[in-house]
Each structure stands twice: as C-alpha cells, then as structure tokens.
Amino acid sequence: MGRITMSHVSRTYVSRRHLLAGGSTLAAASLIGVRGAGAQQYPTDTIHFVTGTAAGSGGDLIVRHMAEKVRAKISTPIIVENRPGGSGNIAIEYVARAKPDGYTVLIWSGNSIGSMMSLLKRPPFDVAKALQVVATINRQAFMFVVDAKSPYQTLDDLTKAMIAKGDKASYATNNYEATIMGEIYKNKTGVKAVEITYKTAADTMNDIFSGAVDYAVHNPVLALAQRRQGKMRILGVGAEKRFKSIPDVPTMTELGVPMNVTSWWAATVPAGTPRPVVDQINKWFVDIVSSDETQKFLSNLGGDPFVLTTDQAQALMLEEIDNWREYVRLAKITPLG
C-alpha cells in the first residue's frame, strides 16, 4: 500500500476543510491498515476443511493428512467437515457460499469442481467466479481392475473376452470419472459391456469377486489396497503418462486406448478471499506437499505430488470446465436437475 500524504498544505496554516479532509483520509488509512494487519495475522480462529468425501474413504485420508500437517504449523484448531452427496456438489456449494475470509476451505478435486458446470442442468453458480483454487495437492487417475482370480492377465485379454460376450458383459462404476473412462474404453475398442453403477466403491466388491460383473473402474486408493491384499489385478490407469508412484502400472494410452481423465486434489476458497490469506494457504500446502513424508503418503495412495501456484491452479480449473463439457457429451451423460 502506498503512503498517504497531505500535499499542498501549508506548514503554518491548515483550513478547516483541509483538516476534515485529512482526518477522513487518515481514518481510511487506519481502517485499511487494520484490515491488512488482520490478513497478516491470519489465522486467529478455527479453520474448517470441508470435503465431499465420506469419513474413512480414500479421499478423506488425504483431507485429514493435510489437516494434521497444517494444524502443526498454526496455533488455531482445524476441523474436518465431511459433507458427502451430490458427487461433491453439496460440499462445493457450501464453501462457495461461505464468508471469503480463509476460515472455510474446500479440500476436493479441482476437476470435480469444474465438472459441476456440465453435470448439472442449472448450476447454482458459476464456479469460475465463485471459487478460487489456492493450492494443489496431488494427481491421480482411476484404474481398470479385475478380480485377481480372473483369467484376464492384460487389458488385451479383457478386451477380447468382452467383445466375445457382447452386451452380456458388464462392469462396475461408482462416479462420473469412472463412467467417462468406461465409455472411452468402449468407444475405442468396440466393447459393448453394460455399465452397472453403485453408490460407493465398497458396494461393488461382492459383485466383482462373485463374477456378477466382469471388470470395474476404480479409484487408485481402493484398487491399490486390493492389489496389495492379492484380491484385484490392475490392468491399466486412465492417464497419458505413467505415475511415478506406480511405475509398474501401464497407462490406457500406451495400451492403445488413449485417455487422460486425471483428477487432482486441491485447496479452494470462496472468491474474494484476501490475497494475503490466499498466499498463506498456498504456502502451507506447498511446504507440506514438498515434504518427503507427504510425498511418500501420496505415493502410497497411487498419486503423484502436484504443486502449482495459485494462478496456475485457477487456470487449470478453468480448463477442466471445458474438458468436462466434452466428457459429458462423449459419455452421453444426462445433466442432473
């Protein structure tokens, strides 16, 4: 903030008009100074990390890890609020309508925020104008998986078998990313498998292991956990390039089915949050994501650490709005509402 001065005022004479004007200017300067100091002192109250994930889910693990690490950097409490439902839209709208003061932070995937504009017939607000992405956390992608006891050792094995089964083949999904990846796979290969949607990933388990569905498209946290237990086989991940955290898992692109439906987790605040507060939150997350401990944690969940500036993160969310417009068209998804 530049200096506020009273120019052209005589040292020996100040008119009443100039005095009143100067007093108003000083009062305004004092008010701005108080507000600036408040931003610099942030935080002074409890911060709420809001997420659309259910407690105990893979995404919830990321949220609580970040909350724990930020809590160690500040003197105020952090409360994690799980607000699942509506494919994350409940949590997104709650934060978008919160006071823009840095005390309500959405920890959710930036691509899901961007998808809201295409997945709803009448979005309650324009996410590009209502929200500011302040920091990124990681990148990950869903995976094509089968029961470890199935005869399908590779994606090619699965594709040949599913083409032979025609519309008698089926697969499990439980969110829009999985739906889109499933449609891209079918469009590129000629597979006619029927999509079976489930409320949660856990709900698919019995049908996968009983053979009621032939394959599934699952989040990396669940897929990797099941692979470690010897229960699932991962055939491919829906990205262009292999992830450093799972170098042995081939991408669908290199397997001949080009796709890059990746998700990225981020911290997001209501638009209008003071820039000093935005920068402080960004610094917390950059420091934490850059640490060896957090990078190992994220790698175990099948994602690569992902660090962007605030401006880069907001620009990426705007790209996702365009991406999802095309995804919804490709997958023939009927917007809700």
Q: Would you tell me the structural class of the helices and strands?
A: alpha/beta
User: What is the CATH superfamily of the largest domain?
Assistant: Bordetella uptake gene, domain 1
Number of strands: 11
Gross morphology is globular
Strand content: 15-25%
Number of domains: 2
Report what the structure shows:
The chain is an alpha/beta fold and 337 residues long. The chain has helices spanning 16-41, 58-71, 89-96, 110-119, 127-130, 155-165, 176-189, 205-210, 220-228, 275-289, 292-300, 310-331; strands spanning 47-51, 78-82, 104-109, 131-141, 143-147, 170-173, 194-197, 215-218, 232-237, 262-270, 304-305. A six-stranded mixed β-sheet has the order 2-1-3-10-4-11, sandwiched between helices. Helix 7 links the parallel strand 6 (170-173) and strand 7. Residues 1-38 have low confidence and may be disordered.
